[in-house]
Amino acid sequence: MQTSQKHKITGKCIDWPVQELESYCWPPNQSLEPYQSGSDDGSNSVQHSVPNLERYCTLDSSSSMQNSSSTASFSPDGSPVSQQNYTYPLDLHHSPENTCASPISGSCVIDNENDLGLMIRQLETAMLGIDSGDLDLHAIAASGRATKVSVEAERWKYMKEMIARGDLKELLCTCAKAIESNDMYMTDCLIAQLRQMVSVSGEPMQRLGAYLLEGLVARLASSGSSIYKALRCKEPASPELLSYMHILYEICPYFKFGYISANGAIAEAMKEESRVHIIDFQIAQGSQWLTLINALAGRSGGPPSIRITGIDDPTSAFARGGGLEIVGQRLRKLAESCKVPFEFHAAAISGTEVQLENLGIQPGEAIAVNFAMMLHHMPDESVDTQNHRDRLLRLAKSLSPKVVTLVEHEANTNTAPFIPRFLETMGYFSSIFESIDVSLPREHKERINVEQHCLAREIVNIIACEGQERVERYELFGKWRSRFIMAGFTPSPLSPFVNATIKTLLQSYCDKYTLEERDGVLYLGWMDRAIIASCAWRC
């Protein structure tokens, strides 16, 4: 998604069976009353002006099809007004497939019209249990048609009122529900309207709305597997992506909170140990360990020897512009300057591939396992029978570590159905975008890049993808607690010192950030919404 271009969406053409037409909206600029026209044989045929849904093409502003625009707007009286003029005659009497609607011919077995009427009334009486003479069948049919027209009229009235209110959240939710129910006409109208309301350079909800809309469009087009293409943005060079990640780290305390709380738990658990082995299941740039090495260097009685095993991930590898040796060199240089004995062990594999032999365990060392913003990327039992999420916890338990740290998003985007997941994503990321708005001016030239490359990808993945393609699978702490207990761990409450350190950190940020401790777990939030949860566990 390039901010210099208007969004283009590739839509899908949908074949609509004629019998389904009545369940969708009536066409633009057309009376809802049918009109009678004379047919060749003198009988009356009914015609309606309805959208040509046989080739109804949604969201295709870049297609080479003729008349591809299907954007809808609304007239002052509330009726939908399309940029296309569709007519689709429904001559039921003369359709080659509708022979049963032809006038009764003389070749019928029953020649007497009175006898035919009598037989029909007798059959109706037997089936309905009433005298059909008491029923005005024409009135019933007219009533049914009127009810359908009334429903559609109310539907468009509701949409007009909703658009008039200009509630972006309401429109996004309604669009998500239309996609879920496969209501393509409503979806097309809403997307056209939403494109006029969202902006990557606007208010927090407008910016988030732009990425939520991209997720909906990608889901509609079934392009979740091509998530980068769905975002329509050039992959930044690795130094640029690293720069964007660093900016996000500095302007929002979420990552710092996670790192500081985890480091505090590790330092507390290792205060009497002389040989420390830290296993980081997603080491990224290794930034978390800079402060810990500095802290352990000043430990009374001298620093311990530190060994760090770093497990890689593709995004971090790209941002670094190289392999894990870059991380090792950076940490080794710092350790030397602090006179801390240091060793780095690189495990250039993804979390799903990690086995015991990859961890380089040595006798006599105290082990700390770090799961910082990593486990939500691991598929669980709802995705893969191997359930790597729980497998890694069992693997960590087999190491008999002194401490295991967990830092995760406090949200549920894992097993929630699509609509609840969409609402959860909107609520969760709206808090993050609001907090960014406080720290970084909207006109800041790098803010769009930060949000686009560091946050939008996650948003679109959550909304557009299913199955193994959906990798951003957050879970609430209650679920993580169940997993850790099932793996054999016991909660290890974070110390008051860690809590006090984070409170000091937050003093340099907006006072809308909140810090809460519940049952030994720390929650960092924005106003009344918890964003990140941090905790520690022991065997």
Outline the secondary-structure elements.
Elements: E1 13-14, E2 35-38, E3 44-47, E4 56-57, E5 72-74, E6 80-82, H1 113-128, H2 137-165, H3 168-180, H4 184-195, H5 204-220, H6 227-231, H7 238-251, H8 254-269, E7 275-280, H9 288-297, E8 305-311, H10 314-320, H11 325-337, E9 342-347, E10 366-372, H12 388-398, E11 403-409, H13 418-439, H14 447-464, H15 477-487, E12 490-491, H16 496-506, E13 513-518, E14 521-526, E15 529-538
Explain this structure.
The strands form four sheets. Strands 7, 8, 9, 10, 11, 12, 13, 14 and 15 form a nine-stranded mixed sheet that branches. Strands 1-4 form a two-stranded antiparallel sheet. A two-stranded antiparallel ribbon has the order 2-3. With 539 residues, the chain is of the alpha/beta class. α3 (168-180) runs antiparallel to α4, α3 packs antiparallel against α13 and α13 packs antiparallel against α14 (447-464). The chain has helices at 113-128, 137-165, 168-180, 184-195, 204-220, 227-231, 238-251, 254-269, 288-297, 314-320, 325-337, 388-398, 418-439, 447-464, 477-487, 496-506; strands spanning 13-14, 35-38, 44-47, 56-57, 72-74, 80-82, 275-280, 305-311, 342-347, 366-372, 403-409, 490-491, 513-518, 521-526, 529-538. Helix content is 42%, strand content 14%. The chain is built from 16 helices and 15 strands. A motif (VHIID) lies at residues 276-280. One of its GO terms (molecular function) is sequence-specific DNA binding. Residues 61-75 have a biased composition (Low complexity). Belongs to the GRAS family. Residues 166-226 are annotated as: Leucine repeat I (LRI).
